[in-house]
Amino acid sequence: MSKLDEYMKKPYRMEIVEDQDEGGFVVSYPDLPGCITCGETMESAIKNAVDAKREWFKAALEDKVEIHEPDSLSKYSGQFKLRIPRSLHRDLAEHSVREGISMNQYCVYLLSKNDALYSK
C-alpha cells in the first residue's frame, strides 16, 4: 500500500459548513492546514473534499511537509473538574431539579447549547 493510500484511510475529521452568503457548502479538514473546498450540494462538497484531501496529501508528500496524525477523541476522558461559586452551584442544582434531570445532564445541556451558538 502506498503512503498516499495509508493517509487516505486515516480518519481525518471533516468539517462541513453551509455557505449562507454564496450558497452551497464549504468543507475543510482541521488537521490538514489549507485543505479546503466547496460544492453546490452536500454530496458534491463531500466528493470534492475527498479529492482535495488526496491532492493535499500528494503535495505534502512531494514537498516533504510534515503530515500530522488525525486528532483522536481517545485523548479526552469526557471529564473535567470545575470549581464554581456556591451560588452558581445552587442555581444549577435548582434548575436541574425543575427540568427533572441530573445537574450533570443539565450542565452538559447548557455547555452544548452555548457551544452551538459559537460554532456558527
UniProtKB/TrEMBL annotation:
InterPro entries linked to this entry: Arc_rbn_hlx_hlx, HicB-like, Ribbon_hlx_hlx, TA_system_antitoxin, TTHA1013/TTHA0281-like
What is the official name of this protein in its record? Toxin-antitoxin system HicB family antitoxin
Task: Quote the Pfam families the UniProt record gives.
Answer: HicB_lk_antitox
Q: Which residues form the HicB-like antitoxin of toxin-antitoxin system domain?
A: 16-78
Upper classification of the organism: Bacteria, Bacillati, Bacillota, Clostridia, Lachnospirales
GO terms of biological process kind: regulation of DNA-templated transcription
